[in-house]
Amino acid sequence: MWKFIHRLASPKHFYRIAGKWIPWLMAAAVILIALGFYGGLVKAPADYQQGDSFRIIYLHVPAAWMSLFIYMVMATSAAIGLIWKIKLADLFATASAPIGASFTFLALVTGSIWGKPMWGTWWVWDARLTSELLLLFLYLGFMGLQAAIEDRRNAARAGAVLAIVGVVNIPIIHYSVEWWNTLHQGPTVTRMDKPAMHISMLIPLLQAAAGFQIYYFATVLMRVRSLVLQQERRSGWVRELLREEGVR
Amino acid sequence: MNWSEFFHMGGYAPYVWSSYALGLVILVANAVGPALRHRRVKEEIRSRLRREGKL
């Protein structure tokens, strides 16, 4: 097991193994997302209060969950990179940021589009919406900071500190609908007793969420592979690899 | 359910379909962007190695 982990952390093996996984992850993600969207847009009945507008949930909720999940992955791997000086962990943090930012943006915009017909307004400065907007700025700040610092190790370190401090925002987002009065509806799925959602509505949501999750893994691996190649551009195995690919 | 009913989305069509359009754009961009970038990185390294006569 340790041998496997050790080998996976070596850039060369990571590059090869990730390259094999990406197509399978992509296929699984596309199938799950397609199932989820089909179930959500076609099969699920309209909501008795919100009509067909509730179908935005199959996009909005997976995107919002991923915005939190990716942030935790980013902060954790940045911390691992900071503490144990594992370069691959730094690369995972760097690669996660733009994906997380795009899902956060999607969650904000779809929420806004959903809010207009339901609440009568595109935006309110309440706890849930404001803390999610702050999350977007944390992602963008992390990316900007890394882009602004020339030295790669300093960039990783500065980014890690920002990412770790920003973790405090994650529970605030999650509990904001319980701690404060907000226009945003309370949790429907992650409740202790049982989800406040009929099974025919819930299953597509879980499919889409699983699809988004796997999609993130596929795309983060794609990005990390590029970063590995850039970082290792002077090593022998990269030269070997490009030579072999050049022949084909 | 027929097609026009499906596209009509109970009167919420502009909201539902603009959301899903944006969602698809973001999903696709998250795969195509890194794929193009990967190709570019490979090209850059390859041309540098060629310049240095190592390839």
List its salient traits.
heterodimer; A: 248 residues; mainly alpha; Four Helix Bundle (Hemerythrin (Met), subunit A); 9 helices; B: 55 residues
Q: How would you characterize the overall build of this protein?
A:
The complex is a heterodimer of chains A (248) and B (55). Helix content of chain A is 79%, strand content 0%. Chain A has 248 residues and is mainly alpha-helical. Chain A has one domain (27-42, 52-228): Four Helix Bundle (Hemerythrin (Met), subunit A), CATH 1.20.120. The radius of gyration of chain A is 20 Å and the shape is globular. The mean pLDDT of chain A is 90. With 55 residues, chain B is mainly alpha-helical. Chain B has a domain at 29-55. Helix content of chain B is 82%, strand content 0%. Chain B has helices spanning 3-8, 13-51. Classes of the chains: A mainly alpha (248), B mainly alpha (55).
**Low-confidence region ranges of chain A:** none
CATH-level-2 architecture of chain A: Up-down Bundle
Structural class of chain A: mainly alpha
**Roughly what fraction of the amino acids of chain A lie in strands?**
under 5%
Query: Biggest sheet of chain B: strands, sense, closure?
Result: none
Number of beta-strand segments of chain A = 0
The CATH class of chain A is Mainly Alpha
> Regions of chain B with pLDDT < 50 over 5+ consecutive residues?
none
Cα Rg of chain B: 22 Å
Secondary-structure element sequence of chain B? Answer: HH
Q: What's the quaternary structure here?
A: heterodimer
Give the fraction of residues assigned to helices of chain B: over 70%
What is the number of domains of chain A?
1
- Total beta strands of chain B: 0
